[in-house]
UniProtKB/TrEMBL annotation, chain B:
Keywords in alphabetical order: Cell membrane, Membrane, NAD, Oxidoreductase, Quinone, Translocase, Transmembrane, Transmembrane helix, Transport
Ranges that cross the membrane: 6-22, 27-47, 59-82
Superkingdom of origin: Bacteria
NCBIfam families in UniProt: PRK05715.1-2 (NF004320), PRK05715.1-3 (NF004321), PRK05715.1-5 (NF004323)
Any one GO molecular-function label of the UniProt entry: NADH dehydrogenase (quinone) (non-electrogenic) activity
Recorded family membership: Belongs to the complex I subunit 4L family.
Organism lineage string: Bacteria, Bacillati, Actinomycetota, Actinomycetes, Streptosporangiales
Membrane topology: Multi-pass membrane protein
Keyword Transmembrane helix included in the entry's annotation: yes
Full protein name: NADH-quinone oxidoreductase subunit K
Subunit structure: NDH-1 is composed of 14 different subunits. Subunits NuoA, H, J, K, L, M, N constitute the membrane sector of the complex.
Subcellular location: Cell membrane; Membrane
Gene giving rise to this polypeptide: nuoK
Organism encoding this protein: Streptosporangium amethystogenes subsp. fukuiense
Length: 516, 98
């Protein structure tokens, strides 16, 4: 307080993946402003791929160079083992989703043109394209990286918003069924903004209690008795609402099916895989690092939420007739399975096991999800994708390979042995058993069985029903889409048959837990 | 007495939250969200005073910037859906359900 301001120290090398992604996003915006329209896509696409690839390489280099023992950027960002693992997953999944987003005919020609108006027709005829999609994607991915590694609540809030705001826009850019897409965008935006206000008020109350938003400082204050527990507990609850909304846990799951259905499928693939990964990184940091000392206060509630999420996701998925909505409810159920791992906090050894299980689960689930949505983009009707499940009847006879791969993804979601889903579920549930959460595991297994019912129902529909006469056409996949499906299928097989290297990597990432 | 400011901020937050739940016009709903963010700002500044450090005041600036970015995105989305449907009521947007 003597009037001199000390310059902050920033560990640029540690933060390089994030800085690269944000830098490329800004260049992308400049490209939109200055490059001629017909050149934009051919600049944006390689730029995006290079940035994500470069980010991944830098993340791996960070991992090889050894982990720091203190947070970077004056305590704002913790680049620790779990953070690097999560960064790696997010960057690879975003890279894969970019290949899907690159496909023609998915995004509006001109978002400002009213659907069905002469303006829209003219924009389509002149071959316009909203190439802003690429920088928006990069901003969102950068936000995810920050969200998952933030070591104070302010950085986490900024990361949350930088992740979400571009996604709200991306949701509204579908070329076909634009009314649905715009509605999804409005719903996602209003509910998302509502939930981040809760997150922020929770942050304010916790700041009022602890006098700091730094996760380490908050956890240090918890041990001191101060007689203002109300402030802390209300803050904890509001913070939890904001975070659980992002992972789509019940009772905050209402947005997920609507948004997943309305958004362009390539964007859904990106959202469904990466947002969940980033949000679990943040949830673990808040509840384990900052509020781990309060575990007896939040654990019972988290139990209830995990049970509710698993059951709501599994049961409502049965009633769905739309393929993307069904996958959305399945994603809700998976968020519930992951929450059982979050509840398994306890002794350090137990935390390590639970953390590495969650990391492995996120990797396995992310790849399968991207693959499943990539298949959805290929089954088409006259007016876009054939969403209704009845249109998928007999797909196994018309396109056996595609239907076979999709069936395989569904089996992985169900957690059948020899798929990645099995080892993910096994690891999370055994961590939960070690964390004295046996009832949760029983509910988890039961809802897995319910979930298996509707996955198998789709498989039966595809293979044992007669195809409709005017059934959907199978789009000839572009190189990008085939690469995505092949990669996702390969990841699902490899993680299911030979999971040890990735399990080891997750163990190693979790070995030092979170740095504070 | 900083407590009064905290009570005011809690009131503003509650009014905003209730507004989001009961109002039907997307613009008004969005304004209620902004009211909630401003309630957060008031709480941050008050707590900064109570705690005797500047963190809360700095955070208030961050929140203002984030809220401004949110306005840009939110108005773009709401104007887009208004031009399509000639209505900004959140009840009219009912194609996605069940």
């Amino acid at each position: 307080m003597n009037g001199t301001i000390q310059a902050p120290t920033i560990e640029y090398a540690l933060l390089a993946p994030m800085l690269l992604v944000f830098g490329a996003a800004i260049i992308g915006v400049l490209v939109e402003a200055f490059a001629p329209r017909d050149l934009r896509k051919s600049i944006q696409m390689p730029l995006t791929l290079l940035a994500l690839l470069g980010g991944f390489v830098l993340t791996v280099l960070n991992g090889i160079n050894g982990l720091p023992d203190a947070p970077a950027a004056m305590g704002a960002v913790a680049v620790d083992g779990p953070a690097l693992f999560i960064w790696g997953i997010i960057l690879v999944l975003a890279l894969v989703s970019t290949l899907l987003i690159n496909d023609e005919d998915q995004f509006v020609a001109q978002a400002a043109a009213v659907p069905g108006s002469p303006d829209e027709e003219e924009a389509i005829l002149s071959g316009y394209a909203q190439t802003e999609v690429y920088p928006l994607l990069l901003f969102s991915v950068g936000g995810m990286l920050l969200f998952a590694s933030a070591n104070d609540l302010l950085a986490m809030f900024v990361g949350l918003e930088v992740m979400s705001l571009p996604l709200y826009l991306l949701c509204g850019l579908a070329r076909h069924r634009r009314l649905l897409s715009q509605e999804a965008s409005v719903k996602y935006f209003l509910l998302g903004a509502f939930s981040s206000a809760f997150f922020l008020y929770g942050t304010a109350l916790i700041y009022g209690y602890a006098g700091s938003v730094d996760l380490k400082a908050i956890s240090a204050v918890l041990t001191e008795v101060s007689g203002q527990e109300t402030l802390l507990l209300v803050g904890l609850a509001l913070l939890g609402v904001g975070l659980l909304f992002k992972i789509g846990a019940a009772p905050f799951q209402a947005w997920k099916p609507d948004v997943y259905q309305g958004a362009p499928t390539a964007v859904t693939a990106l959202m469904a895989s990466t947002v969940l990964v980033a949000a679990f990184g943040a949830v673990l940091r808040v509840f384990w690092v900052a509020l781990g000392g309060l575990e007896w206060d939040w654990k019972p509630v988290m139990w209830g939420i995990a049970i509710l999420t698993m059951i709501v996701g599994a049961i409502l998925a049965i009633t769905q007739t739309e393929i993307k909505r069904m996958l959305a409810y399945s994603s809700i159920a998976h968020a519930g399975f992951l929450l059982t791992g979050v509840v398994a906090i306890g002794a350090a050894e137990q935390n390590r096991q639970a953390l590495s299980a969650i990391l492995f689960y996120l990797a396995a689930y992310g790849f399968t999800t991207v693959g499943a949505f990539a298949v959805v983009t290929m089954v088409r009707d006259a007016g876009g994708e054939a969403g209704h499940l009845s249109r998928w009847a007999g797909l196994g006879k018309r396109a056996p390979v595609l239907a076979g791969i999709f069936a395989f993804f569904l089996l992985a979601f169900a957690g059948i042995p020899l798929t990645s889903g099995f080892f993910g579920k096994y690891a999370v549930f055994s961590a939960a058993v070690a964390g004295d959460a046996l009832p949760l595991v029983i509910v988890g297994v039961v809802s897995s069985a319910i979930a298996a019912f509707f996955y198998v129902r789709v498989i039966v529909l595809m293979f044992f029903n007669e195809p409709a006469v005017d059934g959907p056409s199978i789009a000839t996949p572009t190189v990008g889409t085939s690469a995505v499906v092949a990669l996702a299928a390969a990841a699902t097989v490899v993680l299911g048959v030979f999971p040890q290297p990735v399990l080891d990597l997750a163990d190693q990432a979790a070995s030092a837990l979170f740095i504070r | 007495m900083t407590t009064h400011y905290l009570v005011l901020s809690a009131l503003l937050f509650a009014i905003g939250a209730i507004g989001v739940l009961v109002r039907r016009n997307a613009i008004v709903v969005f304004m209620c969200v902004e009211l909630m963010l401003n309630a957060c700002n008031l709480a941050f500044v008050t707590f900064a005073r109570q705690q005797g450090n500047l963190d809360g005041q700095i955070i208030a600036f961050f929140v203002m910037v984030v809220a401004a970015a949110e306005v840009v995105i939110g108005l773009a989305i709401i104007v887009m859906i208004f031009r399509t449907r000639r209505s900004a009521s959140v009840d009219d947007a009912n194609l996605l359900k069940y």
